[in-house]
């Protein structure tokens, strides 16, 4: 497109929006789906697998909601393929939460998974959840074997024995780096999209090498069989080891705790040498300076994963990946952009501090800043709105009028306190305002009910205006997300030790709006 195509979106003098249709077209043009910079998931899986096609699908929705089931199913298959490609069996799940992804990777794909979360509640919750599920292990295992046997009999062809032997050989074939490199390294390099990222990571970034293509999306929604339900998300009787750091802060572990942890790890390894599919929930706060070997005493060649790592955790996951030679690959899906720390937001000169944005040198040199409003907008879900899941206009209106009240009646323009989810707990606008003022530690007795309702009536006619404004924010949301994700990708492109990196759309954005993964493989 010509540089002038979108020049008439805003008035040159007033800078006001004058062409909504052109604004929407421009936003679509600069979205990730349209830029031609993503690697299709099916292309990546094909390159990673080579001739080894696929695994047995397992039903995941018996223990998870639809959204989580979709995410875990798709991401775990990709992680397994990356692990096989790199010839590794250890996975570190950063921000593992309740352990859905970790336990599934452990059981379905026979990987040794360390799930690290800063919340002791989450770690204990993951342990308790698995403890309850383990009660059903034997029943599911028997049912799974029976289902598998009956399906094999039904599907038997003229050469059933040879077919079964071949299937076993594929699953058990040992991987070695040399064969992987010689067979598949070229293929993985071919996945780099049409625009040249070596330029993007340098001063050439200013040349907008954008291709006007509609992104190739995949519906990786295959019909799932129930044949091995037992392998879903359930652990055998003694497959869980829980280690919880007594220090929930980010400080270093004391020598005694390191020694205790090492002994516990060695005992666990000795007692479960026959169990390769282990899941270890751990409690620790992860920063860019985290020394993984202090948390995981038997750290070996591994890969890092993160399913919806919040705020700076997504950026720090990539930093740890590039810094630690043991970590051979990373697959990270971030979220909560509004919680990112920004180097240039407050114009503070803290060169030594590690920030969530920007990561790449190009945007650092530009002193680029998004600001909280833009980051909040990046969290909105355009695809959900597009299918009729409308924005909560009334709650947004309540919050906007509240802002006017606290500024005019209390003189407050900035506060460290938050209103939170007060709307859903309020019976009326008056109730909402009073509860919110209490949360903000402001005296609500100086406001009468009639005064509060006067504010409501004064701005009620502008509710449609507010809705239109928020719809414009939703339309712009993908463009801001693009900036944050390309910053992370460019950071990886700037590193010398990475063989391939890319952005991959993993999930259906209606089910899971934060659907893009940043993926990278180290040079062997």
UniProtKB/TrEMBL annotation:
InterPro entries: Methyltranfer_dom, METTL25, SAM-dependent_MTases_sf. Residues 154-182 are annotated as: Disordered. Pfam families: Methyltransf_32. Residues 154-175 have a biased composition (Basic and acidic residues). Residues 67-343 form the Methyltransferase domain. This is MET25 protein. It comes from Cochlearius cochlearius (Boat-billed heron).
